[in-house]
From TrEMBL:
PANTHER family in the cross-refs: D-GALACTONATE DEHYDRATASE, D-GALACTONATE DEHYDRATASE-RELATED
UniProt keyword list: Lyase
Entry's Gene Ontology molecular function annotations: lyase activity
Record SUPFAM superfamilies: Enolase C-terminal domain-like, Enolase N-terminal domain-like
Pfam families: MR_MLE_C, MR_MLE_N
Domain Mandelate racemase/muconate lactonizing enzyme C-terminal: 132-237
The protein's name: Galactonate dehydratase
Keyword Lyase in record: yes
Length: 384
């Protein structure tokens, strides 16, 4: 039996990823073994950093091999609980503890989660521009590189436009992508929760002629059960409903699963309590024959954690992946094998990812390319 491995230090490292900022967490044990986690949150880096540091103070001396006990201490300590900031801090520390356990035992994390149920991880990519002409060219280039599934949707600035203009732009974009890629490439449409249920129904109808595989986050996370009429409309067109990137626990997802309002759950390994909680979310979703597709627009540690979950979760279907983030190759040592459609998880101990601290320190976090606010023509605040 492996002896306890007390936590000696919890450190944070923030850097620009190019499009977003990345926040990495390193947990080191008394024995000198370290593990990596990630808590990238786009706009809340400094706040999450403070939460990680405070949790680190409380967890120093805890057994790094007792990840469930540490998770319970981190999430149930004190009276005030929950929310994306704390959940992200917990997620990063939890990932790091699984990394440590795998390194100490000499096995990849997915073997600690029950072993592999597949040989590789299917991925999808983003079509990242929104001008229809450029969109079609980028989509065609992705197909040429081997991509078989891609996602696009409503750009943040569109949420401030009148609805007819939003619908027109959505049709233009989807037409450009479908014309460029043909009928055999899967298309995912993300609404980013920017619509009321009645608006989301009309968005589904606008997207339906382009045969998307799923509609993602058609309504906001504040009241996810409002997706009910949208789900009915989507399913009438043979379209699945995906949501969950802004729901941070199995308890938050339970109501939509129990009412069978979702077909694909999308917990984010950076925000939904880490590997420990996401494996429980996966099991809960599987109870309702619901697929798992982790949300993953963040950096290399988030991708590694999500890929290990994907290797072990029977109901996994596909993983979001952003290999063309400008600084991924600088920050991640020994990138994983990837052919445009499949990500191969190496048989290395732990998460199988190591970071270049010099590269991280060389580029500080900065302004991000993701909009943080939108306004209507009358000056009112719109969703982003």
């Amino acid at each position: 039996m492996t002896a306890a491995e007390p936590i000696a230090a919890v450190e944070t490292f923030a850097t620009s990823g190019g499009v977003r900022n990345w926040l990495f967490v390193r947990v080191t044990t008394v024995g000198g073994v370290h593990g990596w986690g990630e808590a990238s949150t786009e706009l809340w880096d400094r706040t999450v950093t403070a939460a990680v540091e405070e949790l680190g103070d409380r967890l120093t001396g805890a057994d790094a091999l007792a990840s469930e006990a540490v998770w319970q201490r981190a999430t149930r300590h004190g009276f005030w609980r929950g929310g994306v900031v704390l959940a992200s801090a917990v997620a990063a520390i939890d990932q790091a503890l699984w990394d440590i356990r795998g390194k100490l035992l000499g096995v990849p994390v997915y073997r600690l989660l029950g072993g592999p149920v597949r040989d590789w991880v299917e991925t999808y990519r983003h079509v990242g521009v929104y001008d229809p002409a450029a969109l079609g060219a980028e989509a065609a280039a992705l197909v040429a590189a081997g991509v078989r599934t891609m996602k696009t949707g409503a750009w943040a600035a569109d949420s401030a436009l009148p609805e007819p203009e939003r619908l027109h732009r959505l049709r233009e974009r989807l037409a450009a992508v479908r014309d460029a890629v043909g009928p055999d490439v899967d298309l995912l449409v993300d609404h980013h929760g920017r619509a009321r249920p009645d608006e989301a129904i009309r968005l589904v109808r606008a997207a339906a002629p382009f045969r998307p595989r799923w509609i993602e986050e058609p309504v906001g996370p504040e009241a996810p059960d409002l997706v009910a009429p949208v789900a009915a409309e989507a399913r009438a067109h043979g379209i699945s409903v995906a949501l969950g990137e802004r729901l941070f626990s199995r308890w938050e997802l339970r109501p939509v699963l129990e009412r069978q309002l979702v077909d694909v759950v999308q917990p984010d390994l950076c925000h939904a309590g880490g590997i420990t909680e996401v494996m429980k979310i996966a099991a809960l979703a599987d109870t309702y024959r619901c697929a798992l597709a982790p949300h993953n627009p963040a950096g290399p540690v988030s991708t590694a954690a999500a890929a290990h979950v994907a290797m072990a979760a029977p109901n996994f279907t596909i993983l979001e992946f952003c290999p063309d983030e400008p600084r991924r190759a600088d920050v991640q040592r020994e990138p994983w094998p990837y052919d445009g459609d499949r990500l191969t998880v190496p048989d290395r101990p732990g998460l199988g990812v190591e970071l270049d601290l010099d590269a991280i320190r060389r580029v500080p976090p900065g302004p991000i390319a993701v909009p943080d606010q939108a306004y209507g023509a009358d000056g009112s605040v719109a969703d982003v």
